[in-house]
Design brief:
This protein is α/β, with parallel strands linked by helices. It has a domain at 2-189 and 226-251 and 297-313: NAD(P)-binding Rossmann-like Domain (Rossmann fold, 3-Layer(aba) Sandwich). Helices cover 41% and strands 16% of the residues. It is built from eleven helices and twelve strands. The strands form three sheets. It has a seven-stranded parallel beta sheet with strand order 3-2-1-4-5-6-10, with helices on both faces. Strands 7-9-11 form a three-stranded mixed beta sheet. Helix 5 (157-176) links the parallel strand 5 and strand 6 (180-185). It binds nicotinamide-adenine-dinucleotide and thymidine-5'-diphospho-beta-D-xylose. The site of thymidine-5'-diphospho-beta-D-xylose has 17 residues, from helix 3, helix 6 and strand 8. Thymidine-5'-diphospho-beta-D-xylose binds at residues 84-87, 132, 134, 187, 197-198, 201, 213-215, 220, 222, 257, 290.
């Protein structure tokens, strides 16, 4: 297959590309604008393959997107490019509207034009939109996990922009017969995750003996999935998913934020020894809550498991331990980010735009 992947220099997109290059004969065109979140190092191995091509382009640029569809003539699109950090969507929602909504609109229009020009592709073509469980809003402590039929109720600028893009994709499927499939996944963690997100932020700050910010009381719950398990599920969704379906993907690993941070502290203590001040748990600092902080996310991934024959490969505890080892062994990667473009300072407290 010829697969156009957007956002392939990002955390999840790069994991998808590594897996596709390693395990299939597919050809990849990686379309990425190389924002602050991009990490070319994450596809350095894949880039050595003659089945991989990179184009620096912005999905908000309709002309550039249309030209890339024409020149590559994809059999499928996996659309991951997005502004992805909730805290940044509080500080500056404009980029989220542009990339996540307008960018998705441009891709949908380009896919329509592509199929009009190549009607023979219509039967096999797929436009796969990669989305988040945050579109469904917040669960109470005793609520059943989200299902594909759960009503949308986004509450942050990020999740509202992803909900809007989900709706656009479905509308293009219904109205223009675009062959679409969607997936909504819970929180990912693993190698090459940008240090703004909870798990890498805590690992890096913990290693450096810095305070570990926990928003509010730390009782908020997220469901965690290793990025490589998500990448496997995404490839199955794109290749085997039924037309028009939404697949929920999750790790069956709900944890409170406080429990996640405490576990990271203990694993770092085990690996690198205690700080001179003692165990790292003493670095935990409760800070002002995130505005509009969703209490809990959890997904029911049973349909995805049954239909696509997918299941997570590791427990959260094992995946987290492996991830900590990865950050210990790849300090150059994150140290360069800290020097060049992100200091690990708090984001998302003061709306400015
Ligand atoms: P990320 O922030 O790590 O990477 C995003 C990538 O998109 C970057 O390489 C960036 O350069 C690129 N990009 C951003 N704006 C662009 C634009 N205008 N044009 C072209 N490229 C652009 O994100 P991620 O964590 O890998 O998430 C990928 C997708 O998965 C997103 O759509 C996100 O909503 C979704 N998702 C993420 C998670 C998670 O836990 N990280 C969970 C569920 C769903
Ligand atoms: O310093 C922190 N302290 C803290 O308590 C940070 C950065 C976060 N948190 C909390 C907020 C959340 O409850 O930890 C939880 C996880 O936060 P993030 O890593 O920012 O992720 P989240 O907001 O849950 O969203 C993530 O998962 C779903 C991704 O960023 C999204 O792209 C994805 O859709």
């Amino acid at each position: 297959m010829k697969i156009l992947i957007t956002g392939g220099l990002g955390f999840i997109g790069s994991a998808v590309i590594r897996r596709l290059i390693d395990t299939t004969n597919d050809e990849i065109l990686n379309l990425d604008a190389q924002t602050y979140a991009a990490s070319p190092e994450a596809v350095a191995g894949a880039a050595m393959s003659n089945r991989y091509r990179f184009e620096k382009a912005d999905i908000t640029d309709q002309t550039a997107v249309a030209q890339l569809f024409e020149s590559f003539a994809p059999d499928a699109v996996m659309h991951l490019a997005a502004e992805s950090h909730v805290d940044r969507s509080i500080d500056g929602p404009g980029e989220f509207i542009q990339t996540n909504i307008i960018g998705t609109f441009n891709l949908l229009q380009a896919a329509r034009a592509h199929l009009d020009a190549h009607p023979e592709l219509r039967q096999s073509f797929r436009f796969h939109h990669v989305s988040t469980d945050e579109v469904f809003g917040a669960l109470g402590p005793d609520d059943a996990p989200f299902k594909a039929s759960t009503a949308y109720s986004p509450r942050s600028p990020y999740s509202a922009s992803k909900a809007a893009s989900d709706h656009l994709v479905r509308a293009w499927g219904e109205t223009f017969n675009l062959p679409i499939v969607l997936s909504n996944c819970s929180n990912n963690y693993g190698a090459f995750q940008f240090p703004e997100k909870l798990i890498p932020l805590t690992i890096i700050r913990g290693l450096r003996g810095e305070s570990l910010p926990v928003y509010g009381t730390g009782e908020n719950v997220r469901d965690w999935l290793l990025v490589d398990d998500h990448a496997r599920a995404l490839i199955k969704t794109m290749k085997q998913g039924s037309l028009g379906q939404t697949y929920l993907i999750g790790g069956d690993s709900e944890r409170t934020n406080l429990a996640v941070v405490e576990t990271i502290c203990d694993l770092l203590d085990e690996r690198t020894g205690l700080l001179t001040s003692g165990p790292r748990r003493s670095l935990i600092t409760f800070v002002a809550d995130r505005p509009g902080h969703d209490l809990r996310y959890a997904v029911d991934a049973s349909v995805t498991k049954e239909e696509l024959g997918w299941t997570p490969s590791v427990s959260f505890e094992q995946g987290l331990a492996d991830t900590i080892d990865w950050y210990l062994n790849n300090q150059e990667w994150w140290q360069r980010i800290l020097e060049e473009r992100y200091s690990t300072a708090r984001l998302g407290t003061e709306p400015t735009k």
